[in-house]
Amino acid sequence: MDAAQPLIYVHDFHMQFGAKKVIEGLSFDVARGETFGFLGSNGSGKTTTIRALLGIYRPTAGTLEINGKVFSDDYGARLGYLPEERGLYKKESVLDVMSYFGRLKGLSKQDAVEYSRQFLERVDLSDKADVRVDKLSGGEQQKVQLGVTIMNEPELLILDEPTKGFDPVNRRLLMDIIEERKEAGATVMMVTHQMEEVERLCDRIILLKNGRAEAYGTIAEVQNQFGGRTIRLKYSGVLPRSPHYAVVLQETNYAELSLEDSADEAEVLKELVLAGVVVRGFVAAKRSLEDIFIQVYGEAGGAQDGTATPAARGLRRKGR
Ligand SMILES: Nc1ncnc2c1ncn2[C@@H]1O[C@H](COP(=O)(O)OP(=O)(O)OP(=O)(O)O)[C@@H](O)[C@H]1O
Q1: Cα separation of 30 and 36, whole Å?
Q2: Is the C-beta atom of 145 inside 6 A of ligand 1?
Q3: What are the subcellular locations of this protein (predicted)?
Q4: ipTM
Q5: Which of 1, 36, 92, 303 could in theory staple to 30 by disulfide, Cβ–Cβ 3.0 to 4.6 A?
């Protein structure tokens, strides 16, 4: 195994269903040990890409490899896959289902039962060990499924919306569990619509749009690509024109400025004061991923023509 070789490698991937082109030349890779956020609006092709990577779909064109090979059972790394469509045997007890999958994944019966009991305790389901799966709530079933997914300590975890449908407390618990796998050295590729999960867990991300990568890189790189730094300004006076920023939102005595890459916050403040602006509040912040997501998929261009996107309005509300 070549440690420098990415664990997941996708190059010029195309996927078409009938006349419908879903993916049109997608390329990315996932390095060993990194947590990779696979992001995109509903229907943008995330699940399709995962299915092609795992050999469930045959790609129309392109290369999709895990560990240097097209996926097959002996591709050479332990995989934990949490599919979008959850599927557990519903009429069996939780413990029976978990230990059955444990055996399938190569654990001894004793280890599978022990692991299952420990996991159920961790996710506050000890009292449900002997309950039939179909008597559990949706969130409880999902916890069990995540337990099954990680039970053989996978080196590669592919998680399709792992925290979908969870309340905030359980979402945090699930993120803790994923983070532990990451800290244990696992490579994680996860689909999520929760930007706070991305900011907490992901080393790099990709944003899929129209079958291609709209953005790809570390969170900081993507933030920079979309006008990295913003200043929220409370002021009176008239804002001078400046090569160092663009005004993306303006109201009475309040503005948001998007800084140019080379601009320095302190210099911008000095520039404002020298121009006679009375500065009452000056907060420098990175653009949130949620704001970027809405710009890419929602009211694209809204922030550029000076009208506020909902996210920009939210940013402003929080900042004031
Ligand atoms: N087997 C299939 N046959 C025809 N069309 C399909 C098939 N699988 C997926 N699609 C289409 O491909 C597009 C992408 O679907 P996909 O499930 O990959 O999106 P997604 O990004 O995972 O969405 P979501 O965030 O809603 O889960 C959709 O328009 C979907 O209808």
Answers
A1: 7
A2: no
A3: Cell membrane
A4: 0.96
A5: 36
Q: How confident is the model at residue 1, as a pLDDT?
A: 57
What is the whole-number distance in angstroms between the Cα of residue 42 and the centre of ligand 1?
8
Q: pLDDT by residue (tens digit) across 259-301?
A: 887 888 999 999 999 999 999 999 988 878 888 888 788 754 3
Q: Which atom of ligand 1 is nearest to the CA of 20?
A: 5
Assess if residue 3 is contained within a domain: no
For the question of whether the overall pTM of this predicted structure is more than 0.95, the answer is no
With a 6 Å cutoff on the Cβ, whether 192 touches ligand 1 is no
Confidence band, pLDDT 50/70/90 cuts, at residue 179: very high
**Residue 169 CB-density burial (10 A; 0-12 exposed, 13-18 middle, 19+ buried):** exposed
Length of the chain: 320
From its phi and psi, is residue 249 left (phi > 0), alpha (psi between -120 and 50) or beta? beta
Residue 227 Cα distances to 81, 99, 210, 240, 304, angstroms = 35, 50, 22, 20, 10
Residue 106 is part of which domain span? 8-222
pLDDT per position as a tens digit, 23-57: 999 999 999 999 999 999 888 999 999 999 999 99
98, 156: one domain: yes
Work out how many domains the chain is built from and give that number: 2
Pocket lining: 211 vs ligand 1, CB cutoff 6 Å: no
User: Comparing C-alpha atoms, which of 190, 312, 174, 150 is closest to residue 247?
Assistant: 312
46 and 198 in contact (C-beta within 8 Å)? no
Q: Give a yes or no: residue 1 inside a domain.
A: no
Check pocket membership of 22 for ligand 1, CB cut-off 6 A: yes
CATH number reported for the structural domain that contains residue 22 in this entry = 3.40.50.300
